[in-house]
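If you are new to this repository, start here. Below is one unmodified record pulled from the training split, so you can see the exact layout before writing a loader.
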Amino acid sequence: MRLATAADEILPMKDPKVQANPAYLRIIILSRVITKLGKLDNINTKVIEGLFASDLAYLQNFYNRINADGSGKIHTVCPKCEHDFEVETVPPGI
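And here is the target side for that same chain:
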């Protein structure tokens, strides 16, 4: 997933599906910013529509997280030693 541009968030607002159902906005935005999903390189709205609700929620949360601060880092704690650290969830350059 790449960082969203202003166009990624603004242009879908003109789509008739979004105007009829505002919830469809997240489908279009995710289809624009997800660059690869598993073995799929061609992501479109049909792919996003076919996701399980929990997977869609995860991707939307990830979208919100990386676009809020531009970072794919997640703060976490080791369950064994309880050491605090951050994990990069997006490889550099993607």
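Two things worth knowing about this chain: The helical segments are 6-10, 16-20, 25-33, 45-49, 53-69. The first strand starts at residue 73 and ends at 77.
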